[in-house]
Design a protein that fits this description.
Length: 185
């Protein structure tokens, strides 16, 4: 009788441990999904701001049609991207580069730089870029926590049994984006 009671207690404790590990993995996976949706919200905001920016800039930059077309094309690719994190990161990196080139070219147009709509849109996009950066950092932190949970023992056993696979980090694809910018006065 005592042996049976001890056996029941051991099985109950093991079941509770399994439930705790499983629930922890589910919570961590949901945190990763939430973090990705935060990035998605900021990307959507940036995608929505770009057409307004293009319309504001068009009248001033008639000779820069190629730059404007590159921004429009990169935005369209970013809006249409579906799939994994790496594909999204690559296309969003291209969009960031085209926006940087647009702002760089705008330096040649003093009237445009003084336009209040342009200044407001530029500030909104800069603010959104900062929010995207913070969201990416939060996402990568959530991925780190989730991946750690799926890799440590005994979680790795249950993670394998219940098909919890590691998530991918949101990483910079373009090596030029990793370089420190040159500032000259």
């Amino acid at each position: 009788m005592t042996t049976l009671l001890v056996l029941i207690v051991i099985v109950a404790v093991l079941v509770l441990i399994v439930i705790g590990i499983y629930n922890g993995l589910v919570r961590a996976r949901n945190e990763v999904k939430n973090a990705w949706s935060q990035i998605d919200v900021q990307l959507k905001r940036r995608h929505d701001l770009i057409p307004n920016l293009i319309e504001t800039v068009k009248g001033y930059m008639k000779h820069e049609a190629q730059t404007l077309e590159a921004v429009v094309k990169a935005r369209q690719q970013a809006v249409n991207v579906s799939g994994d994190v790496a594909a999204c990161a690559k296309i969003e990196g291209m969009l960031s580069q085209t926006l940087k080139s647009l702002f760089a070219v705008s330096e040649n147009y003093p009237d445009l730089k003084a336009n209040q709509n342009f200044l407001n849109l530029q500030e909104e996009i800069t603010s959104t870029e900062n929010k995207i950066g913070f969201s990416r950092q939060f996402y990568n932190d959530a991925v780190l926590k989730f991946n750690n949970r799926t890799m440590v023992f005994p979680n790795n056993i249950l993670a394998g049994m219940f098909n919890f696979t590691q998530e991918k980090y949101f990483e910079i694809e373009n090596p030029a984006d990793k370089e420190v910018p040159q500032v000259k006065f």
